[in-house]
Amino acid sequence: MDALTLTPTEQRNLDTMAAVVPQWNRRDVAGILAHYDEQITWHDVARGRTYRGKREVGDYLRTLFTALPDLRLDLTTRLPHGDCVAEEYTITGTHLGSLFGIPPTGRPLRIRAVSFVRMREGRLAEDTFYVDLAGILGQLGLFPPLGLAETRWGRMGLRVAVLLRSPRRGVATHRARRGGRGPRAWPGGAPPEDADGAPPPD
Known about the structure:
Layout: H1 8-25, H2 29-33, E1 36-44, E2 49-52, H3 53-67, E3 72-81, E4 84-94, E5 108-120, E6 123-131, H4 133-139, H5 152-165, H6 167-177
Parallel strand pairs: 1-6
Antiparallel strand pairs: 1-2, 3-4, 4-5, 5-6
């Protein structure tokens, strides 16, 4: 975006965001938090977690920098709009500590992410970020390549996994695809439950 089209607020927000990146690449938690509002809130959408205040956000950062001690953040795109800034970026590093509860593997990681940041008086007040969690698990050898699902053996493996996860639904789907009897229709639309809280078998 042409700098001449920016409002003073947008330019100030961009300057703040630009000042934060070097702090990330130095793994300087105090330096990062210095640009945050006291009531900073982080929303980790991929894991369904929320971190409130500088203490919780700081703990998150320290854990991340321990997991990836050579972490580097490279910005791809940054777009300001009023009090908000959108960013696309890549984090790289070597997995040498616990990351999201996953023990260290020593593998290199390349993490793609997007953040939508709301600013307040030139400081970061709220950050809603989306991390490619499936990509992380795949690079750590904990998630199969999605292309595998398109192979014969991949499809068979997924069918078995679905059946083991929900055998009753799996059987009902199999019957429906073959033109057989579908799941039993119960009055009121829901099956009765047995003493363990589970629907009775067909």
